[in-house]
What does this fold into?
Amino acid sequence: MKAEEFTDTLQFALQASGCNNAVVVQKPRLFSDNSSCYVVADLADYVDAKGMDHVRGASHHP
It folds into this structure.
């Protein structure tokens, strides 16, 4: 999966959930593993632009 494909999917999820328009104290966090589509600079820029945090973990992480 390319970063652009993932950001399109994430944008759809944000719109569908209303999180991109909601007034919240804490913005949503993206929790992911370290696969290639999650560690590219384009995704980091996108997540930063949305004011989100990106938390990376390992499989079966609590």
User: Anything to note?
Assistant: Helices lie at 3-17, 41-49.
